[in-house]
């Protein structure tokens, strides 16, 4: 049975992107941190994206074509390309990456039943799509990468109207001050 995991960078004050839409402050370009993210992503066989997150992540489709790409970029690109992607969008005409299918509506019950039948993990990526899964109670784990910055506003990591009971299962600190936290969602 697969797990449905919500994992991404967040500022210390709870934003996945700042007011300008940037998340460059997240620290993903730190080689040790990026290698850790790649290792955490290996058991993920499918990424669930909304349109905006998919467009951001589609960079990884061609990252291996860059001759000067550092090893940590190449490693994550290989992991990302090996996984399936599902994009939930009413506006995207068609996917631009391999191993990608387009769905017009996010059905939490269908997603939960599908994940339960898998032998690999699935991530729900991006706070907008994750909010639907979190509100529906279908997320098994939340794994934030907490960056040591406060950005003061932007796109929130958590939906405003959500209460969750979480159990800390694992944590790791990185030299740049980022913390990775792994929480199980208590039901």
From TrEMBL:
One of its GO terms (molecular function) is 5-amino-6-(5-phosphoribosylamino)uracil reductase activity. Pfam families: RibD_C (PF01872). It comes from the Bacteria. Residues 4-179 form the Bacterial bifunctional deaminase-reductase C-terminal domain. InterPro entries: DHFR-like_dom_sf, RibDG_C, Riboflavin_Biosynth_HTPR. One of its GO terms (biological process) is riboflavin biosynthetic process. Coiled coil: none annotated. This is Deaminase. It comes from Cellulomonas pakistanensis.
């Amino acid at each position: 049975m697969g797990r449905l995991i919500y994992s991404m960078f967040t500022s210390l004050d709870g934003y996945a992107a700042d007011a300008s839409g940037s998340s460059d402050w997240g620290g993903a370009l730190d080689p040790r941190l990026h290698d850790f993210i790649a290792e955490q992503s290996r058991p993920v066989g499918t990424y669930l994206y909304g349109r905006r997150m998919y467009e951001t992540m589609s960079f990884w489709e061609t990252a291996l074509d860059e001759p000067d790409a550092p090893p940590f970029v190449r490693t994550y690109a290989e992991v990302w390309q090996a996984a399936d992607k599902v994009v939930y969008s009413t506006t995207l005409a068609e996917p631009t990456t391999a191993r990608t299918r387009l769905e017009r509506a996010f059905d939490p019950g269908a997603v939960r039943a599908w994940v339960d039948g898998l032998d690999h993990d699935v991530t729900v990526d991006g706070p907008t799509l994750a909010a639907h899964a979190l509100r529906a109670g279908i997320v098994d784990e939340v794994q934030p990468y907490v960056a040591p910055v406060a950005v003061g506003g932007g796109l929130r990591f958590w939906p405003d109207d959500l209460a969750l009971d979480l159990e800390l299962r694992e944590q790791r600190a990185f030299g740049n001050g980022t913390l990775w936290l792994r929480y199980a969602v208590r039901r």
